[in-house]
Amino acid sequence: MESLYKEIDNQRDFIISLYKEFIPIKALGPENGGEGEYSRAMKLKEIMEKYFDEVKEIDVKDERVPSKVRPNLIGTIKGRNQSKTLWIIAHMDTVPEGDRSLWKFDPFSVTVDGDYIYGRGVEDDGQAIVLGITLAKVLKELNLTPNINFSLLVSADEETGSKYGVSYLAKNYSLFNKDDIILIPDAGNPEGSMIEVAEKSILWLKFTVIGKQAHASTPEKGINAHLLSMILGITLYEELHEKYDAKNELFEPPTSTFEITKVEKNVENVNTIPGKHTFYMDCRILPQYDVDDVLNTINEIVKRFEAENNCKVEVEVVNREDTTRPTDENSETVKLLKNAIKAVKGIDAKAIGIGGGTYAKYLRSLGLNPVVWMTCDETAHEPNEYVRVSYIISDLKVISYMLM
The Peptidase M20 dimerisation domain covers which part of the protein (predicted)? Predict the structure, then answer.
């Protein structure tokens, strides 16, 4: 282990060079205005073939992208016991950069500043990709055979529902055994003490308020859909938080959340009252609440709002992911990870739940016990997203402890 740790300590230059190879290749799903992950996947496949015993590509058809497929890659190093595998599961797609003026550096290049590496997707979920490939490189160069198989799954479409990623693979392929150790580095905290074992239900909703367009100087002739949307948004926010106010201390934050997020463009000019306005809500719902009950409450609020304001409101479910059973906190995976974190970092990790959605939910539905863990400052989806090389080095030692 000392030789392995020493080699891991020497991987800084490789980690930086690896990021520089794939981060500049955009991997946005078509829902986010992109062409999918194909180009990035081909680069990662080329790299993975240098360090894994075998690399398998599983393509899922998607006519919306130029390649017509969304690729998923599996690299494997065979262990002494080949009936069991330690998995790292990563996703290669990212979200858009958002407002570029908020970035200090080009989001789709890689900028290194001391311990920090900046770029869109370097944490979410490039950190998992780098962990998997770097560990494979170290094992190969030291000619080490792990106790069990080591596999890296680099998958597609995590940011927009996983229809072409792990969700599809879980339904159509028998990739995992019940005794496998499954690690998903896609959430964490700066101490590396957070082991995610449960997730909230996710509900994304689109609200379109239809009023009547008019000149802004004669508001009495119209029905201001934008103004009504703001009032409806506040009404939903307040009433949903009031009704679904339970706390579950397993989760951070411990409550359900109902956030107004995206809005769509309405009129072109300032002096026109819009007759149509569309906004979105992101709901993260604690497991004790039924998603259908939340939807019924929303529809009741909307129906009352329509009657009170002489307007029409269309409600569309954009995405729905009901929570599954949590990972067993007494499972081998949780115990092994806690022991590894204690041995490497000298801290006691704890199991928690999060509001974010990861690949773990699809695997939990199969009766498996995946955990979501890594060390990070939680900059995913933010401008100036970054990772720290020291965090990656530390996490590599934890994972290698679990594997060896």
Answer: 197-306
Give the structural domain span for 56: 1-199+325-403
Give residue 65's pLDDT: 97
Q: Which two tokens stand for residue 223?
A: 């029905």
Both tokens of residue 353? 């739940």
Pick the last residue of a domain from 257, 289, 321: 321
Q: Which residues of 55-91 are buried (b: 16+ CB within 10 A; e: fewer)?
A: beebebebeebeeebbbbbbbbbbbeeeeebbbbbbb
Three-state DSSP state, 212: strand
- Claim to verify: residue 315 and residue 349 sit in the same structural domain: no
- Which CATH number belongs to the domain containing residue 212 in this structure? 3.30.70.360
> Are 5 and 142 found together in one domain?
yes
Q: Nearest 5°: phi and psi at 403?
A: -80, -40
pTM: 0.85
At which of 279, 300, 321 does a domain end?
Answer: 321
8 Å CB contact between 229 and 279: yes
Task: Give the mean pLDDT per block of 10 residues along the chain (404 residues).
Answer: 94 98 96 96 98 98 97 97 96 95 95 97 97 98 95 95 92 93 96 96 97 97 97 98 96 95 96 97 96 98 97 96 92 97 97 89 92 96 97 98 94
154 contacts 72 by C-beta, under 8 angstroms: yes
The tally of domains found in the chain comes to: 2
Show the tokens assigned to 192: 């590396």
Residues 6 and 121 occupy one common structural domain: yes
Distance from C-alpha of 337 to C-alpha of 327, rounded to nearest angstrom? 13
CA 386/CA 89 separation, integer angstroms: 20
pLDDT at 400: 97
Give 278's strand partners: 208
Catalytic residues: 93, 158
| Distance (Å, whole) CA 27 – CA 72 | 13
Amino acid 357: pLDDT: 81
Q: What is the pLDDT of residue 291?
A: 97
